[in-house]
Amino acid sequence: MKRTIFIIGLGLIGGSLAKSLKNDSNNYIIGFDSDMRSVELARNNNFIDASCEDITVSAQEADIIILGTPISETITILGKLNKVSYDHEVIVTDVSSVKTPVMNKAKMITNKNINFIGGHPMAGSHKRGITAAKEHLFENAIYVLSPAESCRSHFVDELEEVLRTVKSNFIVLPAEDHDEMTGVISHFPHLIASSLVHQARKWQHTHAYIPKLAAGGFRDITRIASSNPDLWQDIFYHNRSKMSQLLGDWIAEMNELKDLIDYNNRHELTAYLRQAKEYRDGLGTSKKGAIPAFYDLYVDIRDQPGAISSVANILASAEVSIKNLQILEIREGITGVLRLSVPSKDEQQKSRIVLEKSGYELMLAE
Ligand SMILES: NC(=O)c1ccc[n+]([C@@H]2O[C@H](COP(=O)([O-])OP(=O)(O)OC[C@H]3O[C@@H](n4cnc5c(N)ncnc54)[C@H](O)[C@@H]3O)[C@@H](O)[C@H]2O)c1
Ligand SMILES: O=C(O)C(=O)C[C@]1(C(=O)O)C=C[C@@H](O)C=C1
């Protein structure tokens, strides 16, 4: 049976959802964005079936409404959707990185036809806008769902069924738990990445070669500092109490680290680094949305047909079995980076040798 999906906000996340949902011929997708160029691009490239003339009319036509907008806009739009008169029940979901303020707004929905399910696909990019949208962005990623108290469970099943084209792994979490955890592993690291960039920027006043020396490590840890400042300010604002708590913890920990350095406590510093390494290594799974696996390789590839098969053939000849393969764009100025996961450290080393012999530039995850 055909279903109508109305996506408001056709940027990186809304656009990626549109592209993926188009793979199901049962979906009829109406798109809206306050930036008309995004709507035109979505329409011209068939990411959507129709553009929206009037939000109220499109909302009334929809079976499912997805809000792909910044958090503050999402909260405002929820208020508007509450006032629409629907002649059938509709699922409304969002993609906001912080869930509590959105769920608080959802609690105030009085419209009996709205079934609100908060959503957050745990994958993304430092890029913004529909031009960065990717059909496979959420593949293998965790996709958090937080149904409103009033929402009956069969609507959650229905939303998961509709979203199956994105190939994510769905988990249901209360908003507060979600915000605590994403505060730690997503939002706070952004603050730190930006602060590291500022530190380098200040040092550059007296050390002109800093940008030239900024190599893999600095670029890896600060990639996310290149994200959209407006979007991230909004995320920090909506998760501000957690950010403040985490900053307090961090400052205390940095002071302890400073003591270790100032008093030459090499033994304890090694233990600190070892513990961090063990935890970080233990996080390794090759799933998107998680941190890269221990036996990963990042291979620079040209953007041309056959680029991936050449790498795969070289590894096949060396009898290395590839467990996972993913195209990333994680370093500026490089068109393609292939992330390969291999099952052992030996195979990681063997891959390095054969690929470097064939002229590839690569990096090991560890
Ligand atoms: N960027 C990420 O990595 C990421 C990952 C997961 C979730 N999210 C969440 O997804 C949401 C969107 O982020 P994004 O990265 O796609 O940003 P984006 O800037 O790429 O897209 C947002 C889109 O919303 C449009 N928009 C803004 N206000 C609007 C309004 N009132 N009505 C209609 N359209 C409007 C913008 O024009 C833009 O096209 C945010 O809530 C963010 O927290 C982001
Ligand atoms: O890959 C990135 O650039 C991201 O920052 C993606 C990321 C994350 O922190 O993992 C950022 C915000 C989202 O809400 C979900 C995913």
UniProtKB/TrEMBL annotation:
Keywords: Amino-acid biosynthesis, Aromatic amino acid biosynthesis, NAD, Oxidoreductase, Tyrosine biosynthesis. The keyword Amino-acid biosynthesis applies. InterPro entries: 6-PGluconate_DH-like_C_sf, ACT-like_dom_sf, ACT_dom, NAD(P)-bd_dom_sf, PDH_C, PDH_N, Preph/Arog_dehydrog, Prephen_DH. Its EC number is 1.3.1.12. Pfam families: PDH_C, PDH_N. Residues 296-366 form the ACT domain. It catalyses: prephenate + NAD(+) = 3-(4-hydroxyphenyl)pyruvate + CO2 + NADH. Residues 3-291 form the Prephenate/arogenate dehydrogenase domain. Pathway: Amino-acid biosynthesis; L-tyrosine biosynthesis; (4-hydroxyphenyl)pyruvate from prephenate (NAD(+) route): step 1/1. SUPFAM superfamilies: 6-phosphogluconate dehydrogenase C-terminal domain-like, ACT-like, NAD(P)-binding Rossmann-fold domains. PANTHER family: PREPHENATE DEHYDROGENASE, PREPHENATE DEHYDROGENASE [NADP(+)]. Belongs to the prephenate/arogenate dehydrogenase family. This is Prephenate dehydrogenase. It comes from Virgibacillus siamensis. The gene is tyrA.
